[in-house]
Design goal:
Number of strands: 10
Structural class: mainly alpha
Length: about 800
Amino acid sequence: MDSNLGAVSNDNDTNINDNDGQMSALTANSATLRNRRQNQEGVRQKASVGVPSSVTASTHRKHLLRIKQDCSNGERTFHRVHDPLEEDTISLGGSHNGSGPEIWFEKHVSSVKEVCKNRTFGQWAESLIPIVAWIKTYRWKKNFITDLIAGLTVGFMIVPQSMSYAKLAGLPVEFGLYSSLTPLYAYAMFGSSRQLAVGPVALVSLLLNTGLTLVLDNAGITRENTPDAEYDALYATMAIQTSFLVGICYILMGIFRLGFVTIFLSHAVVSGFTSAAAIIIGLSQIKYVFGYDIPSDKALHKMIRNIFASIDQFNWRTFVLGGTSIFFLLGLKKLARKYPIKFKWARAAGPLVLTLVTIVLQWTADLESQGIPIVKEIPSGFPNFSGTTAVKTLGDNFGKLAVLVLSIVIVGFMESIAIAKQLSTKNNYEIDASKELLGLGTANLMAGLFNGYPLTGSFSRSAVNNDAGATSGISAIVTATLVGLTLLFLTPVFELLALPVLAAIVISGVVSLVDYEEAIYLWKVHKFDFGVWSMAFLGTLFLGVELGLGIAVGISLLLVIFESAYPHTAVLGRLPGTTEYRNIKNYSQAERYEGIVIARIDAPIYFANTHNIREKISKYEKSAVNEYIKNDAKRLNGVSTKATAGGESGSVDGEIGADAKSTKAVKFIIIEFSAVAHIDTSGLHTIQDLTKHCSDNKIQLCITNPNRRVMERLVTSGVADDIGREHIFVSTHDAVDFCLNELDRDDTKGGSDKNIYQFFSQDAAGTARSAMPSEMATLVDNEIAEEQDHGDA
C-alpha cells in the first residue's frame, strides 16, 4: 500500500514473547533503565499477566494500548484513501459520488444523453404522456365501474364548487366551469397521480383576485374610474394570461426537473400562510351571506371595519339562507368523519344536494323577489378558443403579472404535490414530481387557451375521489365529461342558484384549512417553529395575501440560509470498548485525548458556511488549550503543595508560561469529513488557511473519510499536499491511532525517564497502584527507588 495515502502503521510497539504467549512490554525510554530491568524479566512477565501494560508507559502510550485492548482483536486496520490521479481499479460507487450544483447538472445531462440514445418512440410516448403507459394495462372490467362512480361523484361536487371559486376569483361563474373541462382532460393524459382531482381551488382563486386587483390598481385602473364592462373584460383577459403563464412555468420546471424548489417552504410556514388565507377567503364571502356590498380588502382589520361600516343594510333573509347552508355542509362533513363507512357519501353529496334544494326553492318560491340574489346568466356551450387573447397583449403584461404567476406556481404546486404524494402512499405507487409538473402545466395551459383561470389539485375533491374508489385518470375524464354536459344542457338550471349558497360552499370548504391544531402541536413540540408559524399567519392576516406569501417565502429562505450558514459541528470522543467516535455532548462517557482535537462537520463546505466552520474549529482549539492550561495548573498546584510540605521554598507555577503551555496543548486537529458531501473553492481556501494556521502553531491537521469528489478537489487544488497525503485517513480511529503514536514518540524523545518517574511517584499510592497485583506493585516500587538512587548518584 502507498503509505502516503494510507494510515501509518504502528511501528513503536514492542512485544515480548514467552511460552505462555505474547505479552505487552513495559516500554523504557532510557537505555540504563532497560539494562537494570533485564534481571527482573521473569518477575515482570508474571506480574504483567492480566494487568494493563500501559501502567508503566507514557500518557499517550497508555491511551494507545488501552484502545488496542478495548478492540476485539487488538490489530490495526489498514485502508487506503482514494487517489483521483491514479487509474481506477476498484469501484468506489460510481463517478458521481458527492453533491453540489455541478454534480446535479452532470447527472441530469448524462441522464438526458442516455435517454435520448436508448429510448424508442413508444417509450418516449409513455414517458411524456402517462396515459399511453397505464391505458395498456388498465383492467376495464374490474376498475371502470369504480372510476365511473368516482368521476360522477367528483363531477356533482365540482360544478357548484367551481362556480363558487370563480366568484371568489372575481370572475363570472362560467370561468369556473371552463377551468373544469379541458384542463381535466389534459391532466388525465399528462398527470402522474391516479387520484388527484384538479380544478379551481379557494387559495389560488384568492391569490388571483388579490393579485390582479393590485396589478390593475398599480396601473391606475379601478372600478371607480373604468366602465364595468371594460374593467371586467381587462380583468378576464389578464386572468387567462396568468393561467397561460402558469402553465408555461410548470412545463419548463418539469422539463428541467425543478420540483425541488418548493421544498424550501417549511411545513410551519405553509400551515401559517394557509390558515390565515382561509380566514381571508371566508371573510371575503361574508357579503353574500349578510346581503349587502362590502368593499374587499387584503387586511383582516380593514375587512372587519368594512363589514360593520354598512351593517344597517343587513339582510336577514340572505343571512338565514347562507347560515343554514353553512351549518348543513359542515354538519354533513362532521357526520362523514364520525361515521366514515355509513355516511361516506355525505361529504361529496352535500354541495350537490344543497344546490338542487335551493334551485327548487328559487323555481317555486322565487327567492330573488325576496331580496336574495341569484347567479342569473350563464353562457351555454363549450368555451371559445382564447389563445389569441392570451398571447395578444402578453408582452405588455408579462412584467406586471410575474410576481402573481410566481406566487401561484409555488402555492399551486406545493398544494398539489402534497396531496398527490399522500394519495400515492395510500395506494402503494410512486409520484414523479417532474411528470406532475408537466401534468399541471398542460392543465393550466389548456385553461389559458380555453377561457379558464389557474387551477391545481383540490384537497376536498381529491379525498372524495380516492374514497369513491378512483384508480386512474378515467375518473377525471368522467368528471370533465359531466361538466361538459352541464355546459351544454344544464346552464339554465344553474342560473337559478342563489349566491349565498355559493358563498356557503366556499366558506365550508376553507374552514378545514384553518390549521389551529398544528399551531398547538408546534407550541408543545418546537417553540421556534411555532414562532415561524405565527409570523406567517399574522403577516398574511394583517398585511395581505401577497405580502403574507412573500413573508412566508422569505422566512423559509432565511431558515434555509441559517441552517446552511450555521451547520452542525461536533467535538468527538471515543466510546469505550469500540473504535466509534461520537459527539461528546450526547455521550458523556466518550474519551478525549490530550493534545488531540477531533471535530466533525455535518454539512457540505461552501461559501455560505466557511466562516462559521472556521470559527467553530478555532473555538474547539481554544477550548482544548484552556482545558489543558486548567488541568496543568491543577497538577502543578499539587506538586507545589507537596514541595512546600517537604520544606522547599518557591513555586513552580511560573516555570511554564501560558504561551508555552498553549503550544503544548494541541498537537493534532482531526476533522471528520464523512458528512461533507461537497466542497467548493471557498471551502478549499478555508481548509488551506486552516492548514497554514496549524503549521504556524506547530499543529498537524488531519482529515478522515473524505468522499471521492471531495478528495479529488483536495488533490487538484493542492490542499491535500499542503496537509500531507499521509495525514488523510479512511477512518477517524486510524487518525487517532496515528496521532497517539506520534505523541508517544515525542514523549520518548523528550525524556521518558522523568515522565515515568512522575507518573509513578504521583500515582503509586493512588488508584492505579492499588489496582496492581502485589508482584507488579513491588516491581514499580523497586524501579522508583532505583531511579531515585540513580538521580542522586
